[in-house]
Amino acid sequence: MTMIDIIKWALLFLALNLSVFSIYFFDKQAARHGKRRISERTLLPCADRRQPWCGGGTAVVAA
Predict the structure, then answer these.
(1) For the segment 48-61, what is each residue's pLDDT rounded down to a tens digit?
(2) If 0-12 CB within 10 Å is exposed, 13-18 middle and 19+ buried, where does residue 42 land?
């Protein structure tokens, strides 16, 4: 594995975590303001590390 490959994987991981963080952040903001929330059907798979497309468990803790 070359350094370019490592950088690509790191950027992918960062992008996935940022997207999951955004989803949870917007859901928490909606909850605070009494607005419509994001369904658990969307939220829970994002936090599940067993999902191959996600890996966003770190972002869930940060949100």
Answers:
(1) 665 555 555 655 65
(2) exposed
CA 19 from chain centre, in angstroms, equals 5
What distance separates the 2 farthest-apart alpha carbons in the chain? 48
Q: Which residues contact 23 (CB under 8 A, 6 or more apart)?
A: 38, 42, 43, 46
- According to DSSP H, which parts of the chain are helical? 3-32, 40-47, 57-62
Pull the structure tokens for residue 50.
């067993």
Query: Would the pTM of this model clear 0.85, i.e. be above it?
Result: no
Residues 6+ apart with CB under 8 A from 47: 20, 24, 54, 56, 57, 60
